[in-house]
């Protein structure tokens, strides 16, 4: 990302409880290079920025802005839910029930190649709810019990997934192919254990670190999807249904301590509570652009009513270490 010194070009609105915000009017007079450098520097300094008033009207507008602000856009692999593709590297939000929130997480934190920056653009704001909250990962880490952090730092966390054609992303959606040989090659190259099931489904597991250092600042960040992808954050009726249909070992995804021990509901609730205590949010307005440093800042999605159209891009990949 760009040097934070470029952030001085822009007048950032800092209000408690809201993400850093920029008015489009305050940047219209800048040349493109200054605008790009300034916006990216704000993200580097504060972890996120919401730009309001850009007047983004359609997917073509959004694609142009995403490609202009990013160094490169990623093709998503290992998706946990399906997305609509608008253009190469430009997607819809993950398919997820509107009445269920998406807990705080860092995008693709279970992969080896993760986005350095997440990009969101709102074309249609929902009637109610649906905000994309953000939380500072270093602050969250400091607020967690040291003993719990120590254990996750020693052991990491384990993600187990069971792919089928009914719940979550299919094999083809997650890996970009349903060719078994290609899927197996990807898994081997990305430190993923795998096993094909008698019914043709795929089960995978991967161990990842729970804490990373930010590549620019060196700050230790709580960086994972331990709470979001744990079965405890599912709605109880959904959890019961999935266990009844697929069995406890056949859930679409769940998380454990790195040594395989279950993570108690109390731990998941603690993580959720700490995230919530450190979340800032701003309701979407049509035309908004939100940029998030994916290492420094976690993000979430509130439950919502009405139609909501938010486009997403994963940008500037960073290679993590197992």
TrEMBL record:
- Example GO biological process: antibiotic biosynthetic process
The TauD/TfdA-like domain sits at: 36-313
Question: Which InterPro entries did the record assign?
Answer: AlphaKG_dependent_hydroxylases, TauD-like_sf, TauD/TfdA-like
Q: Which cofactor does it need?
A: Fe(2+)
Q: Which domain of life is it from?
A: Bacteria
Q: Specify one Pfam family.
A: TauD
What molecular function does GO assign, one term? dioxygenase activity
Q: Does the keyword Repeat apply?
A: no
Keywords from the UniProt entry: Antibiotic biosynthesis, Dioxygenase, Iron, Oxidoreductase
Please state what the protein is called.
Alpha-ketoglutarate-dependent taurine dioxygenase
Q: Which organism is it from?
A: Pseudonocardia sediminis
């Amino acid at each position: 990302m760009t040097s934070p010194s470029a952030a001085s070009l822009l007048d950032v609105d800092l209000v408690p409880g809201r993400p850093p915000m920029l008015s489009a009017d305050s940047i219209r007079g800048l040349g493109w290079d200054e605008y790009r450098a300034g916006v990216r520097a704000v993200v580097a300094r504060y972890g996120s920025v919401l730009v309001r008033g850009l007047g983004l009207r359609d997917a073509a507008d959004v694609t142009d802005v995403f490609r202009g602000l990013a160094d490169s856009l990623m093709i998503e692999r290992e998706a946990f839910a399906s997305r609509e593709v608008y253009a190469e590297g430009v997607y819809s939000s993950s398919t997820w029930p509107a009445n269920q929130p998406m807990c705080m997480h860092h995008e693709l934190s279970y992969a080896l190649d993760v986005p350095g920056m997440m990009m969101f653009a709102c074309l249609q704001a929902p009637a109610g709810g649906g905000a994309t909250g953000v939380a500072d990962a270093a602050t969250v880490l400091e607020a967690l019990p040291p003993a719990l952090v120590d254990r996750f730092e020693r052991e990491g966390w384990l993600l187990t997934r069971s792919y089928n054609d009914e719940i979550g992303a299919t094999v083809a959606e997650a890996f970009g192919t349903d060719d078994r040989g290609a899927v197996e090659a990807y898994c081997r190259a990305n430190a993923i254990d795998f096993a094909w099931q008698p019914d043709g489904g795929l089960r995978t597991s991967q161990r990842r670190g729970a804490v990373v250092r930010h590549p620019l600042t060196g700050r230790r960040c709580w960086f994972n999807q331990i709470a979001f992808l744990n079965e405890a954050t599912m709605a109880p009726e959904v959890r019961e249904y999935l266990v009844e249909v697929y069995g406890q070992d056949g859930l679409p995804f769940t998380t454990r301590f790195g040594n395989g021990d279950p993570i108690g509901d109390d731990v998941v609730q603690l993580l959720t509570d700490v995230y919530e205590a450190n979340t800032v949010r701003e309701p979407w307005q049509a035309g908004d652009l939100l940029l998030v440093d994916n290492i420094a800042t976690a993000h979430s999605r509130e439950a919502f009513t009405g139609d909501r159209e938010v486009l997403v891009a994963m940008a500037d990949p960073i290679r993590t270490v197992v």
